[in-house]
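Quick log. Single chain, no ligands specified.
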Amino acid sequence: MADQQEEEDLRMALRMSMQNSPPEPKRSKPREAANSATTPEESRRLQRELMAAAAEKRMLVAAKSIPASSSPSKSGRGGDLERKEMEMKAKEVNLDSELSDEEASQLFSMVFAIGVSKDILAQWSNQGIRFSPDPETSMGLVQHEGGPCGVLATIQNLSSRRLSKNRYVASNNFAAFPADAKGRALVKSMGEILFLCGNNKRAVIATLSSIGHGIERSEDSPKDVTIAQALEGVSIESASDLQKVLRVGTYTTPASAFKRLEAMIPVFQSRMGALLFLISALLSRGLDCVQADRDDPSLPLVTAPFGHASQEIVNLLLCGQAVPNVFDGRMDLGGGMFLKGISSNVEVGFLTLLESLNFCKVGQNLKRPKWPIWVIGSESHYTVLFALDTAVQDENELEERESQIRKAFDAQDQSGGGGFISVEGFHQVLRETNIRLPSEKLDSLCSSGFIVWSEFWQVILDLDKSYGGLKDSTGQMGRKIFHLYHFNGIAKSDLNGSQATFGGETPMQRPRLAKLRVSVPPRWTPEEFMADVAVPSGSAGTESSGKDTEVAKPEPPQHAPLVDCIRTRWPRAVCNWIGDPPSIV
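-> predicted structure:
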């Protein structure tokens, strides 16, 4: 009888999937008169529930029907464990479904807004999530279109974190990364981001109706060919297009989500990959939650006129919340109004050229992530900066004290990162950090009615340690030397990688990977550091201990906009590299 009821439910669900209007109620179970006015959204919801319930019943029945004494391995505790495993799998049963009209409309207007240009739609519909085919940059994701760089750079960051554990990193041999290692890192990174967006409770994975689960069974032809054929003529230019081509599935355990992502990697590598992943992240967070995260939900997440990913998209993928600001916590504007920033420490961070131009202030949550990997933001592009040695994040005496003082100062800064506080707030900072300023210094700093960070910090550097300052007679406190790598995924001409042709040399179109030597001077200005610096005779990658040192003149400093970004994390840093300057555009 139960089997008959199950089959009847399943047949009803299948009939509903093939028609636009609600089906005729079952005669054996007459419904109330109100059911005749069922909306299409309710019909689709009922369809999904019935199909999932029927599939779940099958799994549970199968689990219960296992003979307790069929074999020694399935008896006793073994049988119980197997039944529990089957029940868990039944709970993970997921059938991809389409979005409702309302969901599709909300999603499209949230991402692109009504009236979006075809150029922007083309940028986001023609960018897959693929590793670079160039051997020297094969560890990075390649970008061919402007726009989705914010999505690619964030995924690249998490992949870099996983790849940094690979044995090939020790020799800096990035070209030797096996394809399967890169694939696993990519799947794990994408899954982690989606679960982060889903508050570690769920991951929603968006695929295409023309592909769906069928890609898992396409054994006769290459998956890339199958997907390319399925995508012929597919375009997304409106909310109705989104509803027609999109299918979504929800996964409540990492194992089930990773398995689905692994099967769908060819789809995410296709020309729709970056857009599908962005949609997956938004749906994992929940469209209403995304709008609640934002300060101004009326603006599109993809910004006009060039189609760049907004800061809200980058923050969503970095911290799981689509907040628009990069400072720590939130800023109270009074009257019940406040601006939302980054609420907690993140796995990988963010630095921006805009901070060096005094347009914003990146908080410590993004500047000092758990791993030494950062998304680098410029006015028009996102790239990746990373270190292979996690020790670059370790704080020496100067940095630790500077962090303590700066954190206390920023807590009193109500200017949105402008770098100044009130006199009352300044006295609170002095109490919290145990700084005792001479009366003449205190009066001088407070004379204007507000205290500027740069002036306060200069006083601290000249203040003796016994008074809470950082005066260093040796000139070596705070000195660091280390290496950073910068990856720009957009394929551009590389003059250093030119190819010989019949008519001469033709620059190669490929992403760019640059290695930078970073020296953080021990004194206030780089000029003082350049004049006379002690360099360890053993290694150039660690902090000096004061022993076995020799006076040496370092290489002349080089400058590029990336250096300005690095200096927002390590003030006074001096950078050098070989070859073309690293580009953040």
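The chain has a mean pLDDT of 79.
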